[in-house]
Amino acid sequence: MAWHLNGMYYENCSCTATCPCTWSNMQFPATNERCNATLAFTIDDGDIDGVDVSGHTFVLMVDSPPLMSEGGWNVGVIVDDGASPEQVEAIGAVVSGSLGGPPAALGPLLGNFLGIEQMPVSVTSENGEHTVTFGDSSYTGRPHVNDSGEVVSLTGVDTHPAGPVLELAPVSTSSISAMGISFGGEGLSGFANPFSWAA
Q: Cα(63)–Cα(138) distance, rounded to whole angstroms?
């Protein structure tokens, strides 16, 4: 089964500094008692075994021990409510890792699958900021740009599903409550960059 997804990725996690799980390749713990994160993926171009999923968005909800490499993650999937049952099933199959590709690397870390839910999901941009909204949850981030006008990024990341390069986009405000996972605050860790998956 061949498939590909290309688009943009927007992350918000509960860490109060740039997520140590990312830059340490999961060798250092989160800055809180639990690692809670939302990983939103907008699909600009996507086909999963003949099912066109272009134009849809899904969000991974993650709750894990502070040292993510210990495994036992609680993970749920939210798909925008405009997706058909066939599209939801196809996206769920990719995210589960059963179709290979980058999500498959997370398989050994998963402990409890919280299921798949559909709700309104949107990503909007205004004045250089992006806001991800799903249900009653939302977070707003802005890419961090250096004096040369380039977005500051982490490179050489081994264990992140969005890829080996993550562009910093600190989250100014966050209020998350979905699938039994709740966190929020101001000045939290965030990333925003293109992603490309295929298998």
A: 17
